[in-house]
Design brief:
The chain is an alpha/beta fold. The chain is built from 10 helices and 9 strands. It has 2 domains: about 170 residues, Rossmann fold (3-Layer(aba) Sandwich), CATH 3.40.50; about 90 residues, Pantoate--beta-alanine Ligase, Chain: A,domain 2 (2-Layer Sandwich). It has a 6-stranded parallel beta sheet, sandwiched between helices. Strands 7-8-9 form a 3-stranded antiparallel beta sheet, covered by helices on one side. Helix 6 crosses helix 7 and helix 9 packs antiparallel against helix 10.
C-alpha cells in the first residue's frame, strides 16, 4: 500500500493509473475508521482495479464551537485497517498543503446546504462540497463511494457532481449498523456508557415510522410524530429535528406518494448523532 502525503505525488499516481487504463474507486474519510468505512472500501474493490482512501480531518467543515480539536484520530490503526482491506493508496494530506495560505475559494450548493443539518451547522456543507471537489480534482477517480448515513451530504455531493459536470460516479452504500441498530460513526466514541445505551433509540424511532408506512400510513405529519414520540420518550435525548423530505431537493413532504427520506438529528450529551431511512422503496435492511 502506498502512503501519500503530498498532493503532487497523489496526482502523479492517479495519472499513472489512468494511463494504464485502471479504474479507481475513491473513499474519502476523516479517519478513525470503523466497519462502515471498511464496507465502502470493500465496495470499491468490487467495482474498480484500485482503491484510494483519504484520511483528512477537514477544518473548513467545522464551526468555531465544534469538535475539530477533539475529533478522534488514530492514524496508525487506520493505516493497519487499510492495509488489511487491500487499499492500494492511502492519501493523508496535511492541512497546510491542502489549503494554501490565504485560501479563499469555496463551493456552495445553494438550497440543499441550508436545510436539515445546515440550519444548525452553517458553513458545514460549504466545507464538505469544497473538500470533496478538491479531492476529486487530485485523485481523479471513476467512482466516489460514500455512505448513506450522511444522507444530506450525499445529496449535496450528487448535486455538485451534476451541476459542475464532474466525471466521477457517486456510489452510495447502505448504512452499516451495530447489532442494536445504532449507525456506525466515528463520533460514537464520544458517548458515555449511559448515552451509548440510549443511542439505539434513533434507529428505533426511524423503524417505528417505517412500520407505520408499511402498514399503510402516508401522512407525513403522522410519520414524523411517531418517530419524534419514540425519541422524546428517552430522557437523555434532545431532539434537533425529525423531518420527512424529498430526496433530491430536501423539500418537505406532506403526503408520501413516492420515495422520501426520513431524517433525524439528536444530541446525547455533547454528542450529535444523525441517521435516516428511505421510505417508499420497501423495508430498509436492519
Amino acid at each position: 500500500m502506498d502512503i501519500v502525503k503530498r498532493v503532487p505525488r497523489m496526482r502523479e499516481l492517479s495519472r499513472d493509473l489512468h494511463t494504464r487504463g485502471e479504474r479507481i474507486a475513491f473513499v474519502p474519510t476523516m479517519g478513525y475508521l470503523h466497519d462502515g468505512h471498511l464496507s465502502l472500501v470493500r465496495r470499491g474493490r468490487e467495482m474498480a482495479d484500485r482503491v484510494v482512501v483519504s484520511l483528512f480531518v477537514n477544518p473548513i467543515q467545522f464551526g468555531p464551537k465544534e469538535d475539530l480539536a477533539q475529533y478522534p484520530r488514530d492514524i496508525h490503526r487506520d493505516t493497519e485497517l487499510c492495509k488489511s482491506e487491500g487499499v492500494d493508496v492511502l492519501f493523508v494530506p496535511e492541512v497546510k498543503d491542502f489549503y494554501a495560505e490565504h485560501y479563499a475559494t469555496y463551493v456552495t450548493v445553494e438550497g440543499l446546504q441550508d436545510r436539515l443539518c445546515g440550519r444548525v451547522r452553517p458553513g458545514h456543507f460549504r466545507g464538505v462540497a469544497t473538500v470533496v471537489l478538491k479531492l476529486l480534482n487530485i485523485v481523479d477517480p471513476h467512482f466516489l463511494i460514500m455512505g448513506a448515513k450522511d444522507g444530506q451530504q450525499t445529496m449535496v455531493v450528487r448535486r455538485m457532481l451534476r451541476d459542475l459536470n464532474l466525471d466521477a460516479e457517486l456510489v452510495v452504500a447502505p448504512t452499516v449498523r451495530e447489532a442494536d441498530g445504532l449507525a456506525m460513526s466515528s463520533r460514537n466514541a464520544y458517548l458515555s456508557a449511559a448515552e451509548r445505551a440510549a443511542a439505539p433509540v434513533v434507529y428505533q424511532a426511524l423503524s417505528r415510522a417505517e412500520e407505520l408506512y408499511v402498514s399503510g400510513q402516508r401522512d407525513a405529519v403522522a410519520l414524523v410524530a411517531a418517530a419524534r414520540a419514540v425519541l422524546e420518550a428517552e430522557p437523555l435525548v434532545a431532539v434537533e429535528y425529525v423531518e420527512l423530505v424529498e430526496p433530491e431537493t430536501l423539500d418537505p413532504v406532506a403526503e408520501l406518494g413516492g420515495e422520501a427520506m426520513l431524517a433525524v438529528a439528536i444530541r446525547l450529551g455533547k454528542t450529535r448523532l444523525i441517521d435516516n431511512i428511505l421510505l417508499g422503496r420497501g423495508p430498509s435492511p436492519g
